[in-house]
Specification:
This protein is an alpha+beta fold. Helices cover 26% and strands 26% of the residues. It contains five helices and ten strands, in the order ββαβββββααβββαα.
Length: 234
């Protein structure tokens, strides 16, 4: 678990591996008690194995032989899976402070992931009508947000080096036959390795550190620029 840091008006906390329900309750409590002077936070963590369903989702796993818990969440989106080896970043932001709408925030989160992956030699893209980030049509990162009283919670998940088999038990994000992929599998085919990386473990740490640096840079409290025609979806 890394040290907590505060930079550019954002506080980054490392929470380790915790239950999904505990994380959700902590986010709700944080936003319920925050004030106008409260710093925005990014929480980094992993979850124990769990399927989660968005507020409008009616989908169930096709089968569930190992009895992975299924939890109804209040985030947007459909059904997905979380588990060890997946980086979760929960974003607890005051949208008024950031002068962003939800669409702009989603775009900037996606851009942070795309830029980070590009730095590691992985070409990633958006997909029309399906928020998230994709590599060769396979989903590598998911997004799900909720806004209440102008404050965001939930956030993004990036598949670093996780067991992907549970994704075959669902239609990930409500898309039938959608394939998913890990960062480490993409790195195996990339000729561009992180500086100083000599092992898979160091590459994973480098990816986490790079993503946080990019998120902090992209999501700092400076005014967001309007979306342009160049900010397109594939």
């Amino acid at each position: 678990m890394g040290a907590n840091i505060e930079t550019s008006g954002l506080r980054v906390k490392h929470l380790g591996r915790i239950d999904y329900s505990e994380a959700l309750q902590r986010m709700l409590e944080f936003n319920a008690h925050r004030t106008a002077d409260c710093a925005d936070e990014i929480w980094l963590l992993e979850h124990f194995p769990v399927f989660t369903r968005g507020v409008s989702c009616t989908l169930d796993p096709h089968s569930n032989p190992t009895q992975i818990p299924v939890i109804d969440s209040d985030r947007g989106g459909q059904i997905t899976y979380h588990g060890p080896g997946q980086l979760i970043a929960y974003l607890l932001f005051d949208l008024k402070r950031h002068r962003r709408g939800v669409r702009r925030l989603v775009h900037d989160i996606e851009e942070s992931i795309i830029v980070t992956l590009e730095d590691f030699g992985i070409e990633a893209k958006r997909r029309t009508g399906a928020p998230g980030v994709y590599v060769d049509g396979r989903k590598i990162a998911s997004l799900g947000l909720r806004v209440r009283s102008g404050y965001t919670y939930h956030g993004l998940s990036l598949n670093i080096d996780m067991d992907l088999k549970p994704f075959t038990l669902i239609d990930p994000c409500g898309i039938e036959d959608l394939e998913v992929v890990n960062v480490v599998d993409c790195l195996a085919t990339s000729e561009k390795l992180p500086v100083g990386s000599t092992s898979r473990g160091s590459m994973e740490k480098g990816m986490r550190d790079a993503l946080i640096d990019t998120l902090v840079r992209e999501l700092s409290t400076r005014a967001a620029k309007p979306l342009s025609s160049a900010d397109h979806y594939e």
